[in-house]
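hey so i finally got around to running the thing on that chain from the lab meeting. sorry it took forever, my laptop kept dying and i had to restart like 3 times. anyway pasting the input first so we r on the same page abt which one it is
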Amino acid sequence: MTGGRHLAEWLALQEGVHGTAIDLGLDRVRAVAQRLELLPFAPRSIIVAGTNGKGSTVACLTQLLRAQGATVGSFTSPHLLRYNERIRVNGAEVSDTQIVAAFEAIEAARGDITLTFFEFNALAALWIFAQRGVQFAVLEVGLGGRLDAVNIVDAEASVVCSIGLDHADWLGSDLDGIAREKAGVFRRDQWVVLSDPSMRPAVELEAQRIGARVLKAGRDFHWQQGGDGDSWSYIGAARRFDSLRLPALRGQVQLANAAASITTLLGLGVDLQAAHINRALPRLRLPGRFQIIAGPVEWILDVAHNEPAAAVLAGNLRARACAGRTLAVAGILGDKDVDAIARELAPVVDQWVLCGLDVPRGLDASALRGRSPVFQAAHEASDVRAGMELAAQLARPGDRIVVCGSFLTVTPALCLLGLY
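ok and heres what got predicted. didnt touch it at all, straight out
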């Protein structure tokens, strides 16, 4: 590759540099990071791992740190519409120019070392954060943990949001094995915050083996919603905050993410006050996570693409009153446990509209129907646009339409509804 290329050209070229799209391991990416003089990584760093809830937790940590006055870089994946969404400084997407400069630096340093698309992405984020002099970097694990590219950073703290089945082709179907893979980001004396009170014991056992300092939800910190339903309290070992404003992101799970974020920053010695929390949480924005668009027919967009995420979505739908029916426009990739997702959502969905996803790993509507008996009476549509149009025709005032099943389903919905 050579310089002078636009961002789109760089991204297209990176798809073919390495022989496979996913190649878990740290040797290649660490070697290039060392050539770029990125290690040891200078900013104070937090790694966020888990099956679901990572993006929300990264957003929460970022806003809390910004409210406290820190300069923050955040790295997430995948993106919805623009690659730039993956790399942000103080919540703002970095420019094409900055990303291209990072790619040029990586290309000059890598020599004959091949990198995957995600490894280019992770190195670009670290390079940009170093160039911008951020004080904190909040890094989301892409896949697993132990062998994920962000694990070249020795972070001061790790947050594990949840453990569930996803990416079975790479991580297997043994939940304890998955837990140990995600625990691979832990370090001796590091703060490890477990967001889920029912976190699998294997995670904490691995943290103890490594010598990390564990803070677990439901034992070392707690939260409770106020009686008025419009506030909540955080209860930690040394600090308590009452009458807090609710996160702008909807759903009870967001209180768990917020409490874990507060716990993490307090563990790192960040001087959080109630005013910082109340400034940060109403500012949370994360498209496609129980995103509600009001109207005579309400639209709800949620990327839920595995069984645990579908269970959370189902719980959020139960908790939100609806005068009419719930219609679901669903597009799901073929390597997901479609039947498990369908079974979680079946009790809260009155009518299904299945839509095809014309991408690698995608399923057309007929193939999707064949993956679960839940879909026996479902309507079929060629793509997300057609599925949304059909659902809108079927819906009556007071109904709601849920678009779910994949980032690739929610992205066109955001565009079609004029939200992106």
